[in-house]
Structure prediction request, 348 residues.
Amino acid sequence: MAAAEAAVVSSSSLKPDTAPVPESAEMAAATAATSSAMAAAAAIAARTGSEARVSKPALATKLLSLSGVFAVHKPKGPTSAELLNRLKEKLLAEAGMPSPEWTKRKKQTLKIGHGGTLDSAARGVLVVGIGRGTKLLTSMLSGSKRYIATGELGKATDTLDSTGKVTEEKPYDKITQEDIEGILQKFTGNIMQVPPLYSALKKDGQRLSTLMKRGEVVEAKPARPVTVYSLSLQKFQPPFFTLDVECGGGFYIRSLVSDIGKELSSCANVLELTRTKQGPFTLEEHALPEDKWTIDDIAQSLEQCSSLLPAETALKKSKPEESNEQVLSCEYITLNEIKGEDDVIKTF
Prediction:
């Protein structure tokens, strides 16, 4: 408004010899309307600014009140823990947390974790617990998981997948589709399986994969009982073969593919791995892609996914005394790994 007035004054001063023109009623009305519009715009801007100031605390309140279990789509590349950190950082950034305005308030913690490690070279469903939903993650381990795995015959690696160093090569040209289908029954049902050295299993509190990367000598864990509910060959185009596997907790697809290669008097490693289902969560129906990692999208997913969980594991509603003031008293968020089962990370 002031700038507009200054422009008018400057424009008038350029024509000192011109007599002022009387303002018509129409011009007066237009001027008044313009002034009213500008005043309204200023009021809206002020109100919008106020709303922007309160939106972050409101989002923080909503974020810290989220509880339940949902699923995200993990791409190839990051580890499950790295993906969880990425998810956490996106949510905290959206909510403007931590914020200086909360530095003197009582500390609150955002709980978030995942229920079942997925290899960095794999993609697919990663089940995530948030709030009190982290208590349900252990139950996710005992449920079934489903994978589509593509193996490569003729090559063995130290990691049992394509990310490792080739340790052995054997011929595979005489292996037929019938040969593969004929041995799958040996790997179905309740079987014994030796976990891979590159895994989340621990020795003296450290992961075997970490020790292997350091070049330390690591002994293989003893074979342990695992369950394969179904196993079928989907495609065979030598040297590649694709399996559809449904299994229980603690099962390693990399070990399965390696063992199949050995059973065929050759060797094999995992080329591609996708987890298509974990418990009731499927990749197509429930796994949120990264562009949906927002507070509102996750809240909606939690609501939709609550019906998928068994009644006995359903979360109770928040207590009435848990007020917004208590939730908003967040100073910072902690994220610390604690000991749990082999392939679960809980973060608090």
Residues 144-278 form a domain with the Pseudouridine synthase fold (CATH 3.30.2350.10). The mean pLDDT is 76. The longest strand covers residues 224-237. The radius of gyration is 30 Å.
